[in-house]
């Protein structure tokens, strides 16, 4: 298994290089970061200092090589759009804020997707199955911002008009240290619910399809013929193999959740990685954009590797020799 892990890590290095170079190039040529200074009354010495500081007088390939050399040492450079703060520190700080949504949302999504998918498959063509199917199609077809805006309008406007109170905050993040436990929970509920609605819709469909394929397998029929309890057949023998396709989806979804849910964080004014990435793109902040992209890329690689290793745990027939 160790050799397999090493091979997988080595194989992702060229992919990361190509991906980050493309992002670096597209960001660098998307606009002139000095255009705003050029139309202002800026001292020429300060103008030249900015060019020297960010290597703007060098060709893009050389700038990329310099950036990679510094990045592997933990120095992703300052962020001009964030007042010159270090990009690495900004990414780590915002990653903690994003994790406040990503971790609880992922746990709720995983439990919901398994429960809905399994029951929908076991009770195929029942009222419950039709309900889960309808819920899934609704969640897949509607964009994320529709759910987010609906929750904001319902709890922030309609509910307030009816009862005169707002049980949940519709904008911003509260913490225990500054606002207390109750306000912290009230600020987390709506963005987590939005993520839950969108992601559970698709994952429950994957779980249902995988479970239907498994429960119609020969070994499941054999287990039933041996007289094993239905609960044991479904949960012990069926669910374990049906989780294999879902593990791959989990790896990608969890990495992207930790990497920042751009739409959800924008709707709820959440100071996470998603909003930080948008700031970097719209304000042509190359260091900031690259810092967030590399962070997300590493998360995707790491969690996909974890998913591959979990295959062997769920299915003993899988070997990594």
Can you characterise this structure?
Helix content is 77%, strand content 1%. It has a domain at 97-314: Orthogonal Bundle (MetI-like fold), CATH 1.10.3720. The protein has a two-stranded antiparallel ribbon. Helix 9 crosses helix 11 (230-259). With 321 residues, the protein is mainly α. The longest helix is centred in the N-terminal third of the chain and has 36 residues, at 87-122. The protein is flat and about 85 Å long. The termini are close together.
Write down the overall geometry.
Answer: flat
Count helical runs: 14
Secondary-structure element series: HHHHEEHHHHHHHHHH
Mean pLDDT: 81
Low-confidence stretches: none
Termini Cα gap: 7 Å
**Beta-strand share of residues:** under 5%
Strand order of the largest sheet: 1-2
The helix content is over 70%
Oligomer: single chain
Tally of DSSP β-strands = 2
CATH hierarchy class name of the domain at 97-314: Mainly Alpha
CATH topology of the domain at 97-314: MetI-like fold
Largest sheet: 2 strands, antiparallel
Sequence-ordered SSE layout with sheet pairings:
Blueprint: H1 2-29, H2 35-38, H3 44-53, H4 60-71, E1 78-79, E2 85-86, H5 87-122, H6 127-141, H7 144-163, H8 176-179, H9 181-215, H10 218-225, H11 230-259, H12 262-267, H13 273-282, H14 286-314
Antiparallel strand pairs: 1-2
Helix pairs in contact: 1-14, 5-6, 5-9, 5-11, 5-14, 6-9, 7-9, 9-11, 11-14, 13-14
Give descriptors for this structure:
single chain, 321 residues, mainly alpha, MetI-like fold, two-stranded antiparallel ribbon, 14 helices, 77% helix
């Amino acid at each position: 298994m160790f050799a397999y892990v090493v091979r997988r890590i080595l194989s992702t290095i060229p992919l990361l290089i190509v991906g980050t170079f493309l992002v670096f190039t597209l960001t660098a040529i998307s606009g002139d970061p000095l255009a705003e200074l050029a139309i202002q009354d800026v001292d020429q010495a300060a103008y030249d200092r900015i060019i020297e500081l960010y290597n703007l007088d060098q060709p893009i390939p050389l700038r990329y090589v310099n950036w990679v050399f510094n990045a592997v040492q933990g120095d992703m450079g300052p962020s001009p759009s964030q007042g010159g703060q270090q990009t690495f520190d900004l990414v780590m700080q915002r990653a903690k804020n994003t994790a406040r949504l990503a971790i609880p949302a992922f746990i709720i999504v995983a439990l919901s997707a398994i429960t809905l998918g399994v029951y929908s498959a076991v009770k195929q063509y029942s009222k419950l199955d039709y309900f889960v199917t309808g819920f899934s199609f609704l969640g897949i077809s509607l964009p994320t911002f529709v759910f987010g805006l609906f929750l904001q309008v319902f709890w922030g406007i309609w509910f307030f008009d009816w009862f005169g109170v707002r049980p949940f905050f519709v904008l911003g993040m509260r913490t225990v240290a500054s606002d207390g436990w109750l306000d912290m929970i009230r600020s987390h509920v709506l963005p987590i619910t939005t993520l839950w609605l969108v992601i559970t819709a698709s994952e429950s469909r994957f779980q249902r399809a995988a479970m239907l394929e498994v429960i119609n397998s020969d070994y499941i029929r054999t287990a039933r013929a041996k007289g094993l309890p239905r609960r044991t057949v479904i949960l012990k023998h069926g669910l374990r193999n049906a989780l294999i396709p879902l593990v791959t989806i989990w790896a990608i979804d969890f990495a992207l959740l930790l990497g920042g849910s751009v739409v959800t964080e924008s709707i709820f004014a959440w100071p996470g990685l998603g909003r930080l990435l948008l700031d970097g793109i719209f304000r042509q902040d190359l260091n900031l954009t690259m810092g967030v992209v590399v962070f997300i890329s590493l998360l995707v690689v790491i969690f996909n590797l974890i998913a591959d290793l979990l295959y062997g745990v769920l299915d003993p027939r899988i070997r990594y020799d």
